[in-house]
Amino acid sequence: MSSAHSRSSADPVSHALDAAVSAVVEGVKNVGAANPVVLIDGRSGAGKTSLARRLVAAWPQRGRVQLVALDSVYPGWDGLVEGVEYARSTILVPHARGLLGIWERWDWDAGHRAEAHAVDPSLPLIVEGAGMLTPATARLGDVRVWVESPAASRRERGLRRDGETYRPHWDQWAAQEEAHILRDEPAQHATLVVAVP
Fold first, then answer.
1. In whole angstroms, what is the distance from residue 114 CA to residue 116 CA?
2. 45 CB neighbour count, 10 Å cutoff
3. Which of 34, 35, 109, 117 fits a 20 to 30 Å CA distance from 65?
4. What are the boundaries of each domain within the chain?
5. Which CATH superfamily groups domain 3-195?
6. What is the sign of the dihedral through the CA atoms of 185, 190, 194 and 196?
7. φ and ψ at residue 21, rounded to 5 degrees
8. Longest dimension (CA), the chain
9. 48-57 vs 12-31: helix crossing angle, rounded to 10
């Protein structure tokens, strides 16, 4: 057993993410398609981005997997709903129809959309971000993941990651997440619910 594995196993967050990756990989294998779509939702700081990055590294199929983080799509601090709809219409719908999807990154400093990115419908796709699982998006995802995590842990991770930039907006964003949970019941649309300490 390597020392890296030992350290990972000793860290409960890392251990939970490893287990989640294994479960998602099994789900991807069971889809049996060359271009499956994985949607990852959860509140800020829950571990969505870490899960998505680990999943890319552990992807069970040959070739490239595309990863889109909704943090690059949301149009500002009030943009959870609008960002998810933008991702649905410009990324998920074209992918499902076998068409090239084009989305533009949101420049948080300039306050407008910036350079364009393409999504190849022939390749697998992971889209991660708060708000991602809704009745409208769920039908476009083959493997749908809801990540649960305690509020204190999420806040500590979120603020450690984004620092003082995020702190003034934490409650504003959390209110949008809460509205999403009440309105869309994302866990009900998940094929897999994972817990991260």
1. 7
2. 26
3. 109
4. 3-195
5. P-loop containing nucleotide triphosphate hydrolases (3.40.50.300)
6. negative
7. -60, -45
8. 49
9. 60
For residues 100 and 11, the answer to whether their CB atoms sit within 8 Å is no
* pLDDT tens figures, 11-55: 999 999 999 999 999 999 999 999 999 999 999 999 999 999 999
Q: Is the per-residue pLDDT at 2 higher than 80? A: no
* 91-118: average pLDDT: 97
Structural contact between residues 134 and 184, judged by C-beta atoms closer than 8 angstroms: yes
Backbone Cα Rg of the chain = 16
CA distance 108 to 75: 8
The per-residue pLDDT of the chain, averaged, comes to 93
Neighbouring CB atoms inside 10 A of 97's CB total 11
In this predicted structure, what is the pLDDT of residue 18? 96
How far apart, in whole angstroms, are the C-alpha atoms of residue 109 and residue 111? Answer: 6
DSSP annotation of 11: S
Tell me the whole-structure pTM to 2 decimals. Answer: 0.92
Task: Kindly state the percentage of the chain with pLDDT values over 70.
Answer: 95
